[in-house]
């Protein structure tokens, strides 16, 4: 299984067990499912838990949410009250990504900048429909999904 992490914070964001699509070579669109399960129970497609410990039948709390959020311990953030604040965050985060890209793959910087501008226009157009999540560290300097 491949785990995708934020390059800035190192937080787990998602894994390849989810349906995903690479949009314009710069951003992953990952499909999540709304699930209800016992609290702390991690369910990943293709994962077979050990049968060594049987269920003791105790009552446990139930949690509901998007599987990707629950499985990767993402935390909802309300940091962006409007498009302007989200746009400022994006500009800052993109600068950090470009710096990392210049170190690891300088030939991809121009493609990234061009395609990311196009993708971000689409994302900003859907701003009111979006929920935002950070990684487990809740570091808003890192990726906000």
Automatic annotation (TrEMBL):
In this protein, which residues make up the domain named TCTP? 1-145
One GO MF annotation is: calcium ion binding
Keyword list, A-Z? Calcium
Per its UniProt record, what Pfam families does this chain match? TCTP (PF00838)
Q: Which domain of life is it from?
A: Eukaryota
Instruction: Tell me if Ion transport is a UniProt keyword of this record.
Output: no
Q: Which InterPro entries match?
A: Mss4-like_sf, Mss4/transl-control_tumour, TCTP, Translation_control_tumour_CS, Translational_control_tumour_p
Keyword Calcium appears in the UniProt entry: yes
GO cellular component term, pick one: cytoplasm
Family membership, please give it. Answer: Belongs to the TCTP family.
Function summary: Involved in calcium binding and microtubule stabilization.
Protein name (database record): Translationally-controlled tumor protein homolog
Say which species the protein is native to: Operophtera brumata
């Amino acid at each position: 299984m491949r785990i995708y992490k934020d390059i800035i914070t190192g937080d787990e964001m998602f894994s390849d067990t989810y349906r995903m699509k690479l949009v314009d070579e710069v951003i992953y669109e990952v499909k999540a499912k709304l699930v209800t399960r016992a609290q702390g129970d991690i369910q990943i497609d293709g994962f077979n838990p050990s049968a060594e410990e049987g269920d003791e039948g105790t009552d446990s709390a139930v949690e509901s949410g998007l599987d990707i959020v629950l499985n990767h311990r993402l935390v909802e953030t309300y940091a962006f009250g409007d498009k302007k604040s989200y746009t400022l965050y994006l500009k800052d985060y993109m600068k950090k990504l470009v710096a990392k890209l210049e170190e690891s793959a300088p030939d991809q910087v121009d493609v990234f900048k061009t395609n990311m501008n196009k993708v971000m226009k689409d994302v900003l157009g859907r701003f009111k429909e979006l929920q935002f999540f950070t990684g487990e560290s809740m570091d808003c300097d890192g990726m906000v999904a």
